[in-house]
Amino acid sequence: MDRIKKYLAEVVGTLVLVFMGCGSAVFLGPVVGVGHLAVALAFGLSIVAMAYVIGNVSGCHINPAVSLGALLDKRIDIIDFCGYVVSQVIGAIGGAALLMFVSGSAGVDETGNLGSNLVADAGGIGGAFVVEVILTFIFVLLILGVTADKSKGSIAGVVIGLTLTFVHIVGIPLTGTSVNPARSIGPALLAGGDALTDLWVFIAAPLAGAVLAVLVYQLFKAKKEEE
After folding, report:
1. Beta strands of 103-161 (E only): which ranges?
2. I want to staple 127 with a disulfide (CB 3.0 to 4.6 A). Which of 100, 122, 175, 222 is the partner?
3. What is the pLDDT averaged over residues 68-75?
């Protein structure tokens, strides 16, 4: 039953992240001087909100890259990892479907991409891959560090949300910022077209960034234990 509660929490959390974050890209992205920052804040604030709602239930991963980092750092087992990822993808698809319905009713999102990630502005596939690896590395490394200290539990959600915000500020002009395979899968499956063609980049690169973050975090942790 505890596992089911955790997985349900991940469905809800990821649904909110995709609906609010990608929704801000759909509704506010075209607003000159406001859209970029608004989208970044929407993703960050979604994390903050969900951290204080489901953080004590599932840890509020709502991101397969974060769950992979937790698995490699031995914070969750392989069963929970699989359950988390499936739940996150389901939540992301649900959030994208809800966004499609709302944006369609409002007559916006003429491109129909639902805030999907694309590689065009990052210098092609290679550039997009590198950008996503770097941004995910920063994000997951921060999460591993701030959540390792239980005394920081009360502020961890805010710190993680702010980190996701500044990651988006840098990444939005380049790839739309993924750092989260589920966040990319949901909108891409419903949008189709180029979003599906480029989707593999936004699955593989964040996972690679998470692995790199764990490797660096382990080095930091080993050094601290030595001292």
Report:
1. none
2. 122
3. 97
Q: Is the pTM of this model over 0.90?
A: yes
Alpha carbons within 13 A on the beta-carbon side of 194: 13
Q: What does the alpha-carbon distance between residue 102 and residue 62 come to, in Å, rounded to a whole number? A: 22
Tokens of residue 13, six digits: 């959390």
Do 24 and 42 form a contact (C-beta atoms < 8 A)?
A: yes
